[in-house]
Write a structure and sequence with these properties.
Order of helices and strands of chain A: EEEHEEEHHEEEEHHH
Strand content of chain A: 15-25%
CATH topology of the largest domain in chain A: Transferase(Phosphotransferase), domain 1
Distance between the termini of chain A: 60 Å
Radius of gyration of chain A: 18 Å
Distance between the termini of chain B: 30 Å
CATH superfamily of the largest domain in chain A: Transferase(Phosphotransferase) domain 1
CATH class of the largest domain in chain A: Mainly Alpha
CATH architecture of the largest domain in chain A: Orthogonal Bundle
Number of strands of chain A: 10
Number of domains of chain A: 2
Structural class of chain B: alpha/beta
Helix content of chain B: 40-55%
Strand order of the largest sheet of chain A: 1-2-3-5-4
CATH superfamily of the largest domain in chain B: ATPase, nucleotide binding domain
Oligomer: heterodimer
Radius of gyration of chain B: 20 Å
Largest sheet of chain A: 5 strands, antiparallel
Number of helices of chain B: 9
Shape of chain B: globular
Strand content of chain B: 15-25%
Structural class of chain A: alpha+beta
CATH architecture of the largest domain in chain B: 2-Layer Sandwich
Shape of chain A: globular
Largest interface: A-B, 39 and 46 residues
Order of helices and strands of chain B: EEEHEHEHEEEHHEEHHEHEH
CATH class of the largest domain in chain B: Alpha Beta
Number of helices of chain A: 6
């Protein structure tokens, strides 16, 4: 009997994903292939660095009780991660189908989870609605820690909030309400997050063309 | 003239380029432009505005000499209402208002960033692409979602063109630095270590310029140019690939002044291939700021009736891509 059986199912931006089973558990195999558009030296450095930090960050996040896939194995030489495969819909898809009152509890809960991550100095690095999976009704799981890192820097945490805010704003007109709901959840488990939010506004004000009426209070 | 499409005059003047063009439908009937090169340092807004004020009458004269018809055949006056440098925008708006009043033709206020996108949609087969807009003043990943052009990712500090120019200045390359860096980079052999900053689909270049400047004392100009391009373009490529993978748009359009960089074109072409998408780029002569793109975008505004009265035609220096109501795409 083969230990692992898998077939290719998707090509993400970072890696090719295979789905299969490992000792009867559903798994995803994330294979980071070299990118043709990057200089090989930059590419190798980045792929190795991200593989290591993804494994480390996922493990730490799971330890503190954040809903993330479990890590089954790492193959440093071949740039492969073997992780638990979660079933569910992307938050991005749910946002197009669910009414706003159904989204509220999801965003509060997501705020809790990110607050928990940040209070433990875990940074996601690419916190968008494309990287949140809704498994049960309002239970978000956080996936794809490819740009994740361990850091106590205010700026890194603020970048997480800003990335989330920006993509939210890019796809959903009611984004300010949803972001505030998220923020409520975030601050309730991570009161120091007040400073993170202040820093996020500071970073945002460095960007180009923030119209006066569009500034966050 | 058999075409029933409206004839539009487009005036571009957001920074250092004065552009005047007349188009009809997808046809470019005339196109003239003049670009200000500062004797030293970067662009001073007031000096650039003075330059535009001198150039517009010359360019308009040239345009009307070329055309086979009188100015009163024009159906609308489109101008770059924003975003950009205040003094430059005001100069351009003044020219546009004067022509609109004189000819008694509708005034059309165009968003400069969206004009770069509409140019690509008009003259390449790209219909609903993910757009990588790279220029001296802007760097954005734009796509059409829920009735508007949305910015999926962008620079959190300076634009890629601005980064290239300011690094070029430090190495005593002439302004604009971009094309000179591209040329120098071809001779570069050693990849020097630089930071790689990406934040989801956004990025920042200011720290990378600082890091690259520190290499000047001990490394050759060509190696620095080569390394800087490899790093910054890889970041743009990765952000583009992520956006392409998220939105599943199926095509990428490269537009803006830095789109003329052949190395960047090749890199983004490879990104498109990775995501099994099509690749389009605007032609070199229309990559930088020009009147044609303003006129193309103005055509849409005229057709959807978005005409602005003179009283409401004040410039919008901080007008964001995602603030524009897009009535011409369903």
């Amino acid at each position: 009997m083969k230990l692992i059986q898998a077939e290719k199912i998707a090509k993400g931006a970072e890696a090719v994903i295979f789905k299969g089973t490992f000792l009867q558990s559903p798994i995803a195999i994330k294979h980071r292939l070299p990118k043709s558009y990057r200089h090989p030296d930059i590419d190798n450095r980045i792929r190795l660095h991200r593989l290591r930090s993804e494994a480390k960050v996922m493990t730490n996040a799971r330890k503190i009780g954040v809903s993330v896939p479990s890590l089954f194995g790492v193959d440093i030489e071949d740039h492969i991660l073997i992780i638990e495969s979660l079933k569910g819909k992307l938050l991005f898809e749910e946002m197009n189908s669910l009414p706003i009152d159904k989204l509220d509890p999801i965003f509060v809960n997501l705020g809790h989870q990110i607050g928990l991550l940040h209070s433990n100095d875990i940074i996601h690095g690419d916190l968008t609605v494309f990287n949140v999976l809704i498994q049960l009704e309002d239970k978000p799981s956080i996936i794809d820690f490819g740009l994740g890192k361990i850091s106590n820097e205010l700026e890194a945490k603020a970048d997480d909030l800003l990335t989330f805010y920006s993509t939210l704003k890019a796809i959903q007109p009611a984004s300010n309400i949803l972001f505030n709901t998220f923020l409520e959840g975030y601050l309730s488990v991570y009161p120091e997050g007040k400073n993170t939010y202040e820093q996020m506004k500071k970073i945002r004000s460095r960007a180009r063309y923030i119209a006066r009426e569009d500034r966050l209070e | 003239m058999a075409s029933t499409e409206p004839i539009i005059l487009g005036l571009e003047g957001t920074a250092h380029t004065a552009g005047v063009a007349v188009i009809q439908g997808t046809q470019i009937l005339a196109n003239e432009s003049a670009t200000y090169f500062p004797p030293q340092g970067g662009i001073h807004p007031r000096e650039a505005a003075t330059y535009l004020a001198k150039q517009f009458p010359i360019l308009l004269k040239k345009i009307f000499q070329k055309l086979q018809f009188k100015p009163d055949k024009i159906d609308g006056i489109a101008f770059s209402q924003g975003p950009g440098l205040g003094p430059c925008l005001r100069t351009t708006a003044t020219v546009a208002r004067a022509i609109s009043l004189k000819l008694n033709k509708p005034l059309l206020g165009v968003n400069h960033c969206i004009a770069h996108v509409e140019l690509g949609r008009t003259i390449t087969p790209a219909n609903d692409p993910l757009v990588l807009y790279v220029s001296g003043g802007n760097t954005q990943l734009i796509t059409f979602l829920n009735g508007r052009y949305r910015v999926l990712g962008e620079t959190l500090d300076i634009a890629i063109g601005n980064a290239l120019d300011s690094l070029g200045r430090e190495m005593n390359l002439p302004h604009p630095g971009g094309p000179h860096i591209e040329k120098q980079a071809q001779q570069g052999k050693n990849l020097l270590l630089l930071p790689y900053t990406i934040k989801g689909m956004s990025f920042s270049f200011s720290g990378m310029v600082t890091a690259a400047k520190k290499l000047i004392a001990n490394h050759s100009t060509s190696d620095i140019c080569y390394s800087f391009q490899e790093y910054t373009f890889a970041i743009l490529a990765e952000a583009t690939e992520r956006a392409l993978s998220c939105t599943k748009k199926g095509s990428v359009l490269l537009t803006g002044g830095v789109a003329a960089n052949v190395h960047l074109q090749n890199i983004i072409k490879l990104v498109a291939k990775e995501q099994e998408s099509l690749f389009y780029v605007v032609p070199r002569n229309l990559a930088g700021d020009n009147g044609v793109m303003i006129a193309f975008a103005g055509t849409h505004l005229l057709k959807t009736g978005e005409i602005i009265p003179i009283k409401k035609s004040q410039v919008k220096p901080r007008w964001r891509t995602d603030q524009v109501q897009v009535g011409w795409i369903s």
